[in-house]
Amino acid sequence: NITCRTERQQLETNPLPRGFAAPLDGRGSTWHCRVPGHVGTVHEGAVYRVTLSFPSDYPLKPPRVVFESPTFHMHIASSGQVSHPVLSGIGWDPAFTVADILLMVWRRGCALNNRERTIVYFQL
């Protein structure tokens, strides 16, 4: 996928400010990523492994995002798959980059549940 190759080259030139992302295979359809825990929380210093699997029609369709690190979070299924409207295609924009996707995932990492007024964290 030309888009994945272009994004890899951009990340080599301008690394992510938080985390890491690189293709696992020569085709670039699967990427290994690391997402840091939030500063100022009990997860500060933790690093979570995430896999991005890009469909053949990326960037027209979003990648599948799965946490490989054990997690307990209201937006992460027991399989590790991240539940996010944009990643399910609602509001997806082909202009989103790997960096944008990881930022969405990182922001979900410590979410305030407004109904319960509790903070839900990743489980270490």
Account of the protein in words:
This protein is an alpha+beta fold. It is built from 2 helices and 6 strands. It has a 4-stranded antiparallel beta sheet with strand order 1-2-3-4, covered by helices on one side. A two-stranded antiparallel sheet has the order 5-6. The chain is globular. It starts with a helix and ends with a strand.
Distance between the termini: 34 Å
Percent range for β-strand residues: 15-25%
Task: Please list the strands of the largest sheet in the order they lie side by side.
Answer: 1-2-3-4
Number of helices: 2
What are the secondary-structure elements, in order, as H or E?
Answer: HEEEEHEE
Shape descriptor: globular
> Which structural category do the helix and sheet elements fall into?
alpha+beta
What value does the average pLDDT take?
Answer: 78
Number of strands: 6
Biggest β-sheet strands, sense, barrel? 4 strands, antiparallel
In the predicted model, the low-confidence regions spanning at least 5 consecutive residues are 110-124
Integer-rounded radius of gyration: 14 Å
The residue fraction in helices comes out at 10-25%
What topology does this entry show?
Blueprint: H1 2-13, E1 20-23, E2 30-36, E3 47-53, E4 64-67, H2 98-108, E5 111-113, E6 118-120
Antiparallel strand pairs: 1-2, 2-3, 3-4, 5-6
